Amino acid sequence: MEALIKKAKDGDRHALATLIDTHKTIAFNLALKITNSEEEAKDITQESFLTVLENIKKFRNEAKFSTWLYRIVYNEALRVIKRKSVPIEGKHADALATESTDSLEQRESRQRLDAAIQELNENERVVILLFYMAEKTIKEITSITGFTESNTKVLLHRGRKQLKERLENEHQEKS
Questions:
Q1: Which of 101, 105, 117, 152 has its CA 20 to 30 A from that of 143?
Q2: What is the CA radius of gyration of the chain?
Q3: CATH number corresponding to 2-174
Q4: Cα-based torsion angle of the residue sequence 130, 159, 92, 38 in order, rounded to the nearest 10 degrees
């Protein structure tokens, strides 16, 4: 990955395209989870990659490339939300991509999980998504979001607890 980043910084468009292809799905999903709008998520992802293109030479390798990119996506998504003053607590029908090989039960489980994630507050949702979906460490999440390490841990703990409670309550209601 470091060689690819170096090539991209040196102006290799193919290397930059490879970096973008590698991270485009997770960047889009992060934007989608924050905005709950596919159109806005597409725009945010595109703007974020334009920012990467314009600033790749400034990337200092102090963090992972993905952390730098997700920070850009996160900030762009927050900028869009603030500009529109739209609450991000809404529902999104199918934000977690499901593969055609998933069984009906797996898809339903993913939809229930997605719905439960959408019910979390913005900060808890972002931390949960970065930790589990983007597989970021606590340190990387703090770098992306600007939260303190202890705040990130608290948000992750609260988010997990609320997800567990919501999913258990839903299961009990069905029984």
A1: 117
A2: 17
A3: 1.10.1740.10
A4: -20
**pTM given for the model:** 0.60
Tally of residues, the chain: 175
Distances (CA, A) of 123 to 74, 89, 147, 165, 174: 11, 11, 9, 18, 29
Confidence of residue 112 (pLDDT cuts 50, 70, 90): confident
Widest Cα–Cα separation across the chain: 59
| 54 contacts: CB under 8 Å, gap ≥ 6 | none
| pLDDT per residue as tens digits for the range 31-83 | 888 888 899 999 999 999 999 988 888 888 777 888 888 889 988 888 887 77
d(CA 97, CA 126): 17
Sequence letter at residue 157: H
**What span, in angstroms and rounded, lies between the C-alpha atoms of 13 and 9?**
9
Q: Give the model confidence (pLDDT) of 19-41 as tens digits.
A: 889 999 989 988 888 888 899 99
